[in-house]
Amino acid sequence: MGGRGGPLVSRLCFVVVLLLLCASCLCSLANAKRTPPLPKPPAVKKPPPSPSPPPSQIPAYPSLPVRAVCLGGWLVTEGWILPPLFDGIPNKDLLDGTQVQFKSALRKTYITADQGGGGAVLANRTQASDWETFKVVRYLLLPMLWRINETTFNFRASGNQFLGIGASDGIIVATATSPSLPETFQIVRCPFDKNRVRIKAANGYFVQAIATGEVIADYGEPTRWSDWDASVFLMAKVGQQMQGEYQLCNGYGADKAAPVLRDHWNTYIVEDDFKFIASSGLTAVRIPVGWWIASDPNPPAPYVGGSLQALDNAFKWAEKYKLGVIIDLHAAPGSQNPWEHSSSRDGTQEWGTTDANIAQTVQVIDFLASRYATSPSLFAVELMNEPLAPRATLDSLTRYYRDGYDAVRKHSPTVYVVMSNRLSSGNTTELLRFAGGLQGAVIDVHYYTVFNKMFDNFTVQQNIDFIRSNFSGELATVTTQNGPLTFVGEWVAEWKVPNATKEEYQKYATAQMNVYGQATFGWSYWTVKNANNHWDLEWMIKNGYINLKG
Predict the structure, then answer these.
(1) How far is residue 223's CA from residue 232's CA, in Å, rounded to a whole number?
(2) What is the enclosing helix (H) or strand (E) of 125?
(3) Are 321 and 278 in contact (CB under 8 A)?
(4) Which domain holds residue 395?
């Protein structure tokens, strides 16, 4: 049937096509009359195709939630993590921030800054308290030039005034708010008992406690170190000694601290550690840094340069092994808490007390974000670690967090910005409203049982139950729908249970990972290496206490 009438149909189709072509030509002529012809565009040479990015430039961001480990004790010193770092410091028991008490061997009374300072210094109390306790501050010889003399110190009273000699009479007072030559003392230790001392003032005389209770620097006689010598004192050290970056650098002095720290930076964390971290099932590293890194290679005294190169190496290794990096400002200028890991000089906390201090901290964040924004491994910037309330106020902290967030966003629209909750604020949700309006914001909370006395007598099961109920519940209150992400930035499988078995440690670690795995950003173990085995994640993994691949 298809062959019938074929020639007629073909002729009709030909006529239709011819008419359409004619109509198209007429339309083109009509348009040509209305619009002048366009000039022929110049020939454009095609650019060569872009080369494929090298492997190190392919984004290696981990997926959420991350499983990370902190590289604690590497670029911010903490003596308890690696005690041998301090072994070469002369008089290492008298580092900055050491709390000391002096008891007159003759009078049996303690040197006292009455009311904590602000007036005369006496020796009239037989019992020691805060007024009889002084913080050791190693001597600042010249402006901007720190020189270590293992026997020369300033003494800071509990009210923050410094002990010094009066104008002309040698009477010891505690009135200066900053130390100078009159507030300088030398501790001379007994050859056969280092805690039996004499204290030499800047006027060249030794301090003595006289019968009226006054303390005067007017004693010039030699000594046999007996209890009958009014210039002999029994020195006692109280509290936990601070062993942070400040204490290490100022204890050694710049010339000796530089090689000690550079050797530490080059050997403590190396490429093989990143390889192990990646192969163990972890996806990121949290790297604590100090504010002085932004001034590398010439940071202000007493710090020494070199940590920036170590951080550069960390990014190179992270890119190679496809790990995310969370830069953590662990030590802010002025110290955001009174502990050694914020590099406080003597336990004082001064961060956030001035606008200039906050601005300086923002500059550090700007420096770090600018330097590493193009790295595919930069996953997050943590604006500050563990600010302590009430000294770090919520107002100063949120002002800083807003400016720090903007500093990161200036260089990257995608990097996460982590904001640590204040310790001791009593309100774990105080940042929710603020951070909720910021894209890519993360709230960091830390969970430990080992530092709280309430856990002293907890059993294995009580510890685990507390994690599953209390910590889990608290984490749930911070983790809100459409709110900021949540991050358990520090935790450890250590507790106060005596003689716990390996199996009990395994259960404790697993319980924590199950709970902290509910954090929408993830978790980070403290630390990758440590002198204490259960704080050492590498040791825990290699010895079968923690399994991240199961």
Answers:
(1) 8
(2) strand 121-125
(3) yes
(4) 59-85+243-542
pLDDT value for 129: 65
The reported pLDDT for the residue numbered 21 is 36
- Residue 46: per-residue pLDDT: 34
Instruction: Look at residue 160 in the predicted model and tell me its pLDDT.
Output: 85
The predicted pLDDT at position 132 comes to 57
Catalytic residue among 183, 245, 490, 494, which?
490
Quick count: other Cβ atoms within 10 Å of Cβ 461?
Answer: 12
Which residue has tokens 């000699």? 165
Instruction: Note whether 315 and 377 are within 8 A (CB).
Output: yes
d(CA 353, CA 60): 39
Final residue of a domain: which of 218, 238, 258?
238
Q: Are residues 168 and 254 in the same domain?
A: no
CB 146 within 8 A of CB 250: yes
Q: Do residues 520 and 390 share a domain?
A: yes
Residue 65 shares a structural domain with residue 136: no
Amino acid at 94: L
Q: Are residues 312 and 265 in the same domain?
A: yes
d(CA 336, CA 390): 11
Residue 490 catalytic?
yes
DSSP annotation of 293 reads G
Q: Parallel, antiparallel, or unpaired for β 233-238 and 193-200?
A: antiparallel
**Amino acid present at 544:** G
Residues in a beta bridge with 379: none
Residue 232 lies in a domain: yes
Mean pLDDT by 10 residues, the chain (550 residues): 39 34 35 35 34 38 94 98 97 91 93 81 77 57 39 88 86 91 93 96 95 93 94 91 94 94 98 98 99 98 97 98 98 97 93 98 99 98 98 98 99 98 95 95 97 94 97 96 96 96 98 98 98 98 93
Indicate the angle between helix axes 245-252 and 254-267, nearest 10 degrees: 130
Residue where a domain terminates, one of 238, 256, 280 = 238
Residue 268: inside a domain: yes
Task: List CB contacts of 460: < 8 A, sequence separation 6 or more.
Answer: 497, 500, 504, 507, 508
pLDDT score recorded for residue 135 = 64
* Position 125, amino acid: R
Please check whether residue 21 lies inside any domain of the structure: no
**Nearest of 244, 347, 353 to residue 303 by alpha carbon:** 244
Backbone angles phi, psi at 431, to 5 degrees: -95, -5
Global pTM? 0.85
Q: Which of 316, 318, 313, 308 is nearest to 274 (CA)?
A: 318
Determine which one of 214, 386, 474, 494 is catalytic: 386
Tell me, yes or no, whether 41 lies in a domain: no
Which of helix, strand or coil describes residue 96?
A: coil
345 is written with which tokens?
């000089």
162-174 as b/e: b if 16+ CB within 10 A: bbbbbeeebbbbb
